[in-house]
Write a structure and sequence with these properties.
With 109 residues, this protein is α+β, with helices and mostly antiparallel strands. The protein has one domain (2-101): Alpha-Beta Plaits (2-Layer Sandwich), CATH 3.30.70. It is 43% helix and 28% strand. It has helices at residues 12-21, 25-35, 61-72, 88-101, and strands spanning 2-10, 39-45, 52-58, 77-84. A four-stranded antiparallel beta sheet has the order 2-3-1-4. The chain is elongated and about 60 Å long. The N and C termini lie far apart (38 Å). The mean pLDDT is 87.
């Protein structure tokens, strides 16, 4: 499972519903994320705005992208963004590829 950072923008109706119901955001997220093979690590509303943010895990990128496509089409979701976070193994592979290919690559030098 790879970790993803999620951020969305809700319209006023969803925010009002969350406040009136006393929560339920993480449970709602959990149901939809698990339907796409993922897992909710943490889910929050930010204190500075009403934007939900969270950390999710998915087995592969296409599962994460599919969930985001589904979620962004839901009523009340104005915008939905998801981005994969690099772990130590990813950073190591990235560094290896840069070292291996930098001499052959044409760059702005």
């Amino acid at each position: 499972m790879k970790t993803y950072f999620y951020r969305a923008t809700f319209d006023r109706g969803i925010v009002e519903h969350i406040v009136k119901s006393g929560g339920g955001l993480e449970q709602t997220m959990r149901v939809s994320v698990e339907a796409f093979g993922g897992k909710v690590v943490r889910c929050h509303l930010t204190a500075a705005s009403t934007d939900p943010i969270g950390f999710l895990e998915f087995p592969e990128d296409i599962a994460a992208r599919s969930w985001n496509a589904f979620y962004s089409a839901q009523d009340g979701v104005s915008e939905s963004r998801i981005e994969r976070l690099l772990d130590e193994a990813d950073i190591g592979e990235l560094a290896d590829r840069v070292r291996k290919n930098s001499a052959r690559a044409v760059a702005h030098r």
